[in-house]
Design goal:
The chain contains seven helices and six strands. The longest helix is centred in the N-terminal third of the chain and has 13 residues. The termini are far apart.
Length: 201
Amino acid sequence: MTGNPKIGVFGGSFDPPHAAHLTLARSALQHLALDRLLILPTGQAWHKQRILSPAHHRLAMAKLAFGDLARVAIDAREIDRPGPSYTIDTLREIAADWPGADLFLLIGEDQARAWQHWHEGAKIPGLATICIAARLTSSGADGDFQVPQAWKQRFLRLPMAPMALSATELRARLGAHQNVSPLVPEPVARYIEDHHLYQAT
């Protein structure tokens, strides 16, 4: 490894992890030439009203979804850390673990519109380059997030085809006993079936 290590940071509920998550991970590994990509399932999601699936299931599914990708590591620090999962805390910890590393935070278009409202959100571009994955809007068009001029150099867009796919849609399909192949990796689909996840009680 020459120069500063390039570390990707990809957090999310991964409830469940799906094809768009994998596409984003592969795009980041390729186009950012990352030395390591950390996948971080959320612990306590302060911004979500719904209750997430138990952390051990989401962690297991993340390992099944991303485990075969080279240079990828599943990082459980947000699950292990008490209290709400704040991106700023995670970035600070990773920066301390990898002194001098260049950090790249992977987010979707929908998250990009909200990042300034995150806990200490204005400090995030000082710690990591924010890499935005395109996402189709309800009209079928690319998202229209505009990077704040003051942070222009700290944002970039990842070249990947937008995918009209969401975990919310997948959970609804699974709850209705609909086939979700190939929208989720096969090992994840088997895990969901074996553990009867997303089924109405």
